[in-house]
UniProtKB/TrEMBL annotation:
Start and end residues of each Nitric oxide synthase-interacting protein zinc-finger domain: 4-78
Coiled-coil stretches: 78-112
Entry-linked SUPFAM superfamilies: RING/U-box (SSF57850)
This protein's name: Nitric oxide synthase-interacting protein homolog
Family, similarity comment: Belongs to the NOSIP family.
Source lineage: Eukaryota, Metazoa, Ecdysozoa, Arthropoda, Hexapoda
Leader sequence segment: none
Length: 294
């Protein structure tokens, strides 16, 4: 039997390609599509602004931020934490006042119970003498006597309306968390990054529209999303992971400054990730559409 192209409609079987093509044209069903290059963040772009960094800094986990953006983020989070802390302290003082009121009310109720008991003991003899006179007394039919006013089913009485409990505020964490990893983030832990510009006198384009903007500080290899990079903590120079494996790890000496390095001084850069797609992960976008039902 001869092979047919996938667009051939002479077959007796409704193929998967034909079904997918018809579903896409119908406007129904979930549609999956691989995202393009524009949906992947550049390796030299800030994780907050998604734009090339003017003053790049790196976290200990290898995430790149623009210094202005991350400082503004930290200030905003500290202001929010301060506001939440004030709300928490206000709630705590309110709870302490309520507990004090309950303790005072319990003390007053004990005093009233004691006085009532003393009054009953004192008036017990009078009640015995008047017991014969109250035999013919008719009980009251009022709803407000004999404690019946506390058990009325009327929903319009304020004491019977259901009360909504105020949501309890938990004590906020005083640490500012990294927007990418969720770990505590401090300004003193940020490392200044120095990108090495590509030296091409014939290329007169602006830096932001260049395809090849930066290169390795040691080997001068062009950097990009497909090239794993690392930052040397002591100087902030960006080098390729190939340079780290083949040159730096041989004697653990900085190739430019000749200073001694350790394994902690090499920070691999996290590259190409956004909230929509990440490098080496699932690069598919899902579009939810109405389901066609029979």
């Amino acid at each position: 039997m001869t092979r047919h192209a996938r667009n051939c409609t002479a077959g007796a079987v409704y193929t998967y390609h034909e079904k997918k093509k018809d579903a896409e044209a119908s406007g129904y069903g979930t549609q999956n599509q691989r995202v393009g290059k524009d949906s992947v963040k550049g390796f030299d772009c800030c994780c907050l602004t998604l734009q090339p960094c003017n003053n790049p800094v790196l976290t200990a986990d290898g995430y790149l931020f623009d210094k202005e953006a991350i400082i503004q983020y930290i200030i905003t989070k500290k202001t929010e934490i301060s506001r939440k802390m004030k709300e928490y302290e206000h709630q705590k003082k309110k709870e302490e006042a309520e507990l004090a009121e309950l303790a005072e009310a319990e003390r007053q109720s004990k005093i009233k119970a004691f006085l009532k008991t003393e009054k009953n003991i004192a008036g017990n003899s009078n009640n015995i003498m008047k017991k014969g006179d109250n035999k013919n007394a008719t009980p009251s039919v009022s709803n407000m006597t004999e404690g019946r006013d506390k058990h009325l089913p009327s929903f319009w009485i304020p004491s019977k309306t259901p009360s909504v409990k105020v949501k309890k505020i938990e004590k906020p964490d005083k640490n500012v968390l990294c927007p990418m990893t969720g770990k505590p983030l401090k300004m003193k832990d940020l490392i200044d990054v120095k990108f090495t510009l590509v030296k091409d006198p014939d290329d007169k384009k602006s830096l932001i529209i260049k395809d090849n903007r930066y290169m390795c500080a040691v080997t001068h290899d062009i950097l990009g999303n497909s090239v794993p990079c690392a930052v040397i903590r002591t100087t902030g120079d960006v080098v390729t992971m190939e340079c780290v494996e083949k040159i730096i790890k041989k004697d653990w000496i900085h190739p430019i400054t000749s200073e001694k390095l350790t394994e902690k001084d090499i920070i691999p850069m996290q590259r190409g990730g956004t909230g929509y797609a990440q490098t080496n992960c699932n690069l598919e976008g899902r579009y939810e559409r109405p389901v066609l039902q029979a």
